[in-house]
Amino acid sequence: MGSFIIEGINNLEGIVEIGGSKNAALPIIASTVIVGREYIIENIPDIEDVRMMFEILSSMGCKTQYDNGIALIDTRELNTHSVPENLVKKIRSSIILMGAVLSRTGNVEVAFPGGCEIGLRPIDLHLKGLRKLGAEIHEKNGILFGSVNNPKGCEIQLDYPSVGATENIMLFAVSAPGNTTIYNAAKEPEIVDLQNFLNKSGFSVRGAGTGTIVIEGKKNEEKDILEYKIISDRIEAGTYLSAASSLKSKIYIKNIEKEHFKSITSLYEDAGLEIRETHETIVVTNRGRLRSLEKVSTQPYPGFPTDMQAQFMASMATANGNTIIEETVFDSRYKHVPELKKMGADITTVGRVAVINGVPRLYGAEVDSKDLRGGAALVIAAIGAEGTTKVNDIYHINRGYEKFMDKLRSLGVIITEI
Ligand SMILES: CC(=O)N[C@H]1[C@@H](OP(=O)(O)OP(=O)(O)OC[C@H]2O[C@@H](n3ccc(=O)[nH]c3=O)[C@H](O)[C@@H]2O)O[C@H](CO)[C@@H](O)[C@@H]1O
Ligand SMILES: C=C(OP(=O)(O)O)C(=O)O
Question: Which residues contribute to the annotated binding site?
Fold first, then answer.
C-alpha cells in the first residue's frame, strides 16, 4: 500500500503551490451529470479521489479526460442511473451523485458511500431532504433505490449544517420546479463554489456562504461547452502551514484564497507563526518553538475545520505547554493519536477531547496512516522529528494531496516513497 520514509530536518524553506480544492472539485464533477453537455474544468487536483470520481462517471457512459489540472467531461451519453457499488464505496462524495442523477433521470441506485473512517457518517439528512423534494427512496441489501415522479421545491431545515446534505439537496433542487429554501445550510467555501458552478451552468441558486440557500428549480437546456475554474484547496494550504510549525522555517504558500482559511492562519498566528499576506501568497516564518493554545474546537465553517485537526495536533505536539482540542464535528477522528504517541507525543484523549502536553522533540518511528488528514499529520510530525520515520498506508494521503512528496521536497523535506 506504499510508505513514505522521512528524515527529520532542521528547517523548511521554499515555495509551494496549492492545487484545486478536493472538496469543491468532487461535488462539481458529480454535478456535471445533471445536464448532458461538455465541460472544461480547470484547477482540478491530481488526486486519487478525483480519479475515482472520473472512473464512476466513465462507468456510467460519460467521457472524461484529464491533463495537468484540466478536465474535459462529456456527460451527454450518460446511460444508466445505477452508480457502481464497488466505486461508490471508495469515496465519500459519490453520495452526491444521488441528487445529481435523480435530477437528470428521475431514478437512482447507489450504495452507501465510503470516504475517511472518522465516525459514523450517516446520510439521514441527505435522505430527509431528497424525500421532502419528492423522491421516494428505499434501501435493500445496502443499496439505496430512489425515484421521483413529481419533484417540487420546498423548505428544508437541516438539523445540522452538513456539507454533503447541503450539496445533495442543491443538486436535486435545481431541477425540482418551484423554490427550495435550505435553512441551516453549510456555509463552506466549497458550497459557494458549487453554487457558482451551477449558476454558470444556467441554474439559479443564491445565498451559499450564508445559512440560507434559495434554489429556483427549472428546466436547463443549455448546450454550450461550459468552462469553470475550481477554487484552491484551503486544507492543503493549511497542511503546508502546519509543516512549518515545528521547525525554523520560511515558506511561501502560493495560489491561495486567503479569506477561506482565516480560521487556520489566525490560530497559527496565536501559536507564534509569523504570517504575512500578499495577494495570493502567504509567507510563513517560524523562528522557534510554538506556544500552546488553551483550547481549540473544530467547528463548521467559518470555524476551525475538522479537516485541519490532525495536522494542528501534530504542530501542538511539540509546542511549549498544554493544548486542549475538542473535535465537535466527527465522533471518532483521533486515529492518528496512538501513532503520534509512537513518535513520543504526550497526548491523552477522553471522548472527543484531546489534551496535548507539548514535548520539545518527537522522534522517528514506524507509524500507520489511518485516514487522509491523520496520515498527513504523521508526515508533518516526522518532518520535525529526530531521526527517520516510516509512514505506512500512504494511499490514504494520496486520496486528497496532490504530489505531496514532490511539494514537500520543494520545501527541503527529505522524503522518499517505497
Ligand atoms: C468530500 C467532502 O466534502 N468531505 C467533507 C465533508 O464531509 P461530509 O459532507 O461527509 O460532512 P458533513 O458536514 O455531512 O458531516 C458533519 C457531521 O454531520 C453528521 N451528519 C452528516 C450528514 C447526515 O446526513 N447526518 C449526519 O449526522 C456527520 O456524521 C458528521 O458528524 O464535510 C466535512 C465537514 O466539514 C469534512 O470533514 C469533509 O472533508
Ligand atoms: C474527511 C475528508 O474527506 P472525505 O469526506 O472525502 O472522507 C477530508 O477531506 O478530510
Answer: 22-23, 92, 121-125, 307, 329
The label of the residue with cell 515545528 reads 246
Residues 6+ apart with CB under 8 A from 254: 15, 16, 17, 18, 280, 281
Q: Which three cell numbers stand for residue 175?
A: 431541477
Q: Taking residues 170-197, what's their average pLDDT? A: 98
Asked if the structure places residue 226 within a domain, the reply is no
pLDDT at 246 over 80: no
N- to C-terminal Cα separation, the chain: 9
Taking only the tens place, the pLDDT of each residue in 78-122 is: 999 999 999 998 899 899 999 999 999 999 999 998 878 888 899
Q: Report yes or no: 178 and 152 within 8 Å, Cβ to Cβ.
A: yes
Which residue CA neighbors atom 29 of ligand 1 most closely? 121
Complex ipTM > 0.90: yes
CA of 225 to the centre of ligand 1 (A): 32
User: Of 62, 83, 100, 116, which residue is the catalytic one?
Assistant: 116
Residue nearest to atom 1 of ligand 2 (CA): 116
For helices 163-173 and 124-132, angle between their N-to-C axes, nearest 10 degrees: 20
Domain total of the chain: 2
Edge-to-edge, what's the strand order for the sheet holding 346-350?
295-297, 322-326, 353-357, 346-350
Q: Is the pLDDT of residue 1 over 80?
A: no
Question: 425540482: which residue's cell?
Answer: 176
pTM of this structure: 0.97
Is residue 224 assigned to a domain?
no
For residues 208 and 61, state if they share a domain.
Answer: yes
Give the position, in ligand 1's atom list, of the atom nearest the Cα of 124. 24
Pick from 309, 311, 315: which is nearest to 296 by CA?
309
Closest CA to 399 of 112, 79, 23, 80: 23
